[in-house]
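lol ok so funny story. i was supposed to be doing the assay writeup but got distracted and ended up predicting the structure for this chain instead. priorities right. anyway since i did it might as well share w the group, maybe its usefull for someone
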Amino acid sequence: MGIGEFCNREVIVAHRGEGVYEVARIMREYHVGDVVIVDDSTGVRRPIGILTDRDLVVEVLGQEAPAAELTAGDVMTVELLTARESDGLWETLQRMKARGVRRVPVVDDVGALVGIVSADDLFELLAEEMNDLVRVIRREISRERETRR
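and the output, tada:
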């Protein structure tokens, strides 16, 4: 199964020229910890960076930077890790771990943004799968006990 089956299709986006105060307002309004920065000048919404709440704290507040003068493009992470919809779940998780990132925009075959996946999303999915396995084991143990009586 591709990561496209697990990603969140509702991605909150902004453009590189938007001010950091506006991006922070968007994060607050939508209750998200990140905004994908996109370029849609070619008619295709391509991710070019990501700006997280941590970026705002570390790069703006922590540096006492003049926030009113900064744009998303000034602060965003530009070395963006993306995943294609068809990339495997395990492969994506391994790439996230190797790069030390918690959020990955998901793109289609032409590089257009179609979703986002977070480490939290993947942990939740894996926890559900593990829970299902535990239930199977418990059922087997229970059946085994029943047949031994």
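DSSP finds five helices and six strands in the chain. The mean pLDDT is 90.
back to the writeup now i swear
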